[in-house]
Specification:
There is one protein chain. 0% of the residues lie in helices and 46% in strands. The relative contact order is 0.14. It is mainly β. The termini are far apart. The strands form seven sheets. A five-stranded mixed beta sheet has the order 4-12-11-6-8, with no helix packed on it. A five-stranded mixed beta sheet has the order 14-22-21-16-18, with no helix packed on it. The radius of gyration is 31 Å and the shape is rod-shaped. The protein has two domains: 96 residues, Immunoglobulins (Immunoglobulin-like), CATH 2.60.40.10; 95 residues, Immunoglobulin-like.
């Protein structure tokens, strides 16, 4: 009696006895019933909005011992976060693997893609990071319309946010603040947006009363955003 190993493969068994010719048996162990739906590769990638991930999402369906099972239909879904899959389902190959490509949506954040098989509770879950696209606009968040005495720091900073073309905040963008030589002073006028896409400038009013327009510009974007400051 011969018991096959847990690995699905073909083995050769040879029987021999002194003075007799050897006898060879070829036996093949096949995978058992489907037990696991697993992430094979393609997890934890990063890509900007509306961009295909560099690597495909590969799901493996296996038996209890990890042997891949062919011919199993894997259903894939990007859920409420959105994005586009190259196919809503794929059939496993001889290694038990099914793959699709994923193109990110217009929303930056964390995308979860699920791979499931009908009748099975096990599932493959991919967690992908979608980053913002290039800077396309800048808007005022807070600090506009303040009033202060001459040579006085404003009570609140001037805060601007940089967005991509879909309205996602863009971190790491270079923002410059200027009062057009009105005579005021910035603690720092060249800033980089934080993880929320915002840049915050501290401004001290000029020595002369009047209305000052402070503009904030971002590299690569033609339109500026203005903050109006009244100096008493």
């Amino acid at each position: 009696t011969y018991t096959l190993s847990k690995t699905a493969k073909t083995v050769t068994v040879t029987a021999s006895s002194p003075g007799l010719a050897k006898v060879t048996f070829t036996e093949t162990g096949t995978p058992g019933s489907p037990r696991w739906v697993l992430v094979q590769s393609g997890n934890q990638q990063n890509a900007p909005v509306t961009t295909m991930l560099p690597l495909p999402l590969v799901v493996k369906v296996s038996d209890s011992y990890g042997n891949g099972i062919s011919g199993i239909t894997v259903n894939l879904s990007a859920g409420t976060f959105g994005g586009t899959l190259s196919a809503s389902s794929a059939v496993t190959n001889s290694l038990g693997r099914a793959s699709v490509n994923y193109t990110t949506s217009t929303k930056a954040g964390k995308a979860t893609i699920l791979g499931t098989v009908a009748g099975m509770t096990s599932r493959a879950q991919f967690a992908e990071t979608v980053t913002a696209g290039p800077a396309a606009g800048i808007v005022a968040i807070s600090g506009n319309g303040q009033t202060a005495a001459a040579n006085t720091p404003l009570a609140s900073p001037l805060v601007a946010r940089v967005n991509d073309q879909y309205g996602n905040p863009v971190p790491g963008a270079s923002v410059s603040f200027s009062d057009g030589a009105a005579g005021g002073a910035f603690a720092t006028n060249a800033l980089t947006t934080d993880s929320t896409g915002t840049a915050s400038a501290t401004y001290t009013t000029p020595p002369s009363p009047g209305q000052v327009t402070v503009n904030a510009t971002v590299a690569g974007v033609a339109t500026a955003v203005n903050f109006i400051v009244s100096v008493q």
